[in-house]
């Protein structure tokens, strides 16, 4: 039986709520907000929030991410076998949390602009954003004149292999660009992350909007 959120025996954090309860609530809120934007059609998307250095709360596979219950959230130890019922893409979360201890939340959606633009940008292997004021919503970006690098990967049903490619690419410096807090999977969607749930949510909203801007802009430029 998979360990789902019990919301009982965790130590309390400031405010009287357990770290597990707070993470589970954060996952549920992220799913609901994304569904309201029509970014997670037909059970697509997956969401996770870090509980502590060794454990995350993450959506189970195949459920409506806009109507999550606490029992739809798995409490997954990092570096251990995936729990029964895990998201098909759970390893894209666990591997990144293990590699980057500063990450507090990872959100994945099948939003329209990300899903379409990722196919147009796949041949280049990355999408470069520049000239948009909104890019300052991304961590580390101070000016519209900066160039933000968003890696683009071919979609793959072999999630372990894909995860290996993602980690290898993210370990490489972005050169004269600033690495985006996220990446695109061609024809699939976007992964975005942050140090906190609100950072991840802001990054996701900014990236999807920037992708929509870019799609419109490309229609008018050769
Ligand atoms: C119905 S969408 C196909 C799977 C997917 O890409 C996704 O984001 C949802 O997978 P999960 O196993 O996390 O429900
Ligand atoms: Zn997906």
Q: Can you walk me through this structure?
A:
With 222 residues, the protein is of the alpha+beta class. The chain folds into 2 domains: 1-108, Class II aldolase/adducin N-terminal domain (L-fuculose-1-phosphate Aldolase); 111-222, 3-Layer(aba) Sandwich (L-fuculose-1-phosphate Aldolase). It is built from 5 helices and 9 strands; from the N terminus they run αβββαβαββαβββα. The chain has helices at 19-36, 90-99, 112-121, 159-170, 197-220; strands at residues 46-52, 55-59, 73-77, 105-109, 126-130, 147-153, 178-179, 182-185, 189-194. Strands 1, 2, 3, 4, 5, 6, 7, 8 and 9 form a 9-stranded mixed β-sheet that branches. Helix 4 (159-170) links the parallel strand 6 (147-153) and strand 7 (178-179). The longest helix is centred in the last third of the chain and has 24 residues, at 197-220. The radius of gyration is 17 Å and the shape is globular. The model has no long low-confidence stretch (mean pLDDT 95). Ligand L4RZE5RM binds at residues 42-46, 59, 61-62, 87-89, 108. The ligand CSCCC(=O)C(=O)COP(=O)(O)O binds next to loops. Its cofactor is Zn(2+). Its EC number is 4.2.1.109. This is Methylthioribulose-1-phosphate dehydratase. Zn(2+) binds at residues 108, 110.
Task: Offer a few descriptive terms.
single chain; 222 residues; alpha+beta; L-fuculose-1-phosphate Aldolase; 2 domains; nine-stranded mixed sheet; 5 helices; binds the ligand CSCCC(=O)C(=O)COP(=O)(O)O; binds zinc ion; MethylthioRu-1-P_deHdtase_MtnB; aldehyde-lyase activity; lyase; amino-acid biosynthesis
